[in-house]
Each structure stands twice: as structure tokens, then as C-alpha cells.
Amino acid sequence: MATVNWSPKDPLDVRDYWIDFASLLSSDETISASVVTIAPTQNPVSGSYVDMALEEDEFAGKQVRIRVSGGSPVNASGNTPANYIVRYHITTTTGQEFDLDKALKVKERVA
Fold first, then answer.
1. Whole-angstrom Cα distance, residue 98 to residue 96?
2. What is the pLDDT of residue 104?
């Protein structure tokens, strides 16, 4: 599968990100089920975990779309931008199953 380079997300944006699984699937195979989760990251100052919200997700053909909001630009070690791990698990029309982890960065807001 080709690596997709997502642009870093602004913490206040609510936006869509796509993943195309076409390189893993045969020409007549499509996605029949998809489960997406986003792991929280820890804020180094407060120690609390900061979630990026998965607002919705859907699949069509060989692609999965997620819509996300929130997130923090600072990760557990105090570095910016923070990386959130988006985890995909798909099942195909032929019964194959694939897992993919993709990092989504959150950039620091600039006034």
C-alpha cells in the first residue's frame, strides 16, 4: 500500500481523511466492514490523556473516510506536533482482513 502523507491537523478543525486500500485488494474485491479507532495521547503538563474525536467513519469501494475533531499539538514528551495513531481494521468481500496504523499529526495553532 502506498504511504499517504496527511497534512497536520489544526486542533480546531473538523476534517476528513481518506485511506485507499486498493493496492491490497483484487480488482473485484471491496471493503465490506471497517472499524476505526484513534488512540489518545498524553499531555505532559497535566498528565491527562487528550482525545482526538472520531466524529464519523464510512467506507465505499476500496476506501475508508474518517472525520476527526480535536486533538492536542503537544505529545507525552512535550514535543510538537503530537501524533495520534489511527487504527483501521477492514474486512473485504472475499473474507480477507487487514490492519493498518496511520499517524495523524496535530500542529500547533499560530495566531
1. 7
2. 92
Q: What is the CA radius of gyration of the chain?
A: 15
- At the top level of CATH, the class of 14-106 is mainly beta
User: Could you tell me the three cell numbers for 57?
Assistant: 467513519
Q: What are phi and psi of 104, to 5 degrees?
A: -120, 115
Distance CA 3, CA 74 (A): 24
pLDDT tens digits for range 31-76? 999 999 998 776 666 666 677 899 999 999 999 999 999 888 776 6
- Ramachandran class of 25: left when φ > 0, alpha when ψ lies in -120 to 50, beta otherwise: beta
The more confidently predicted of residues 51 and 9 is 9
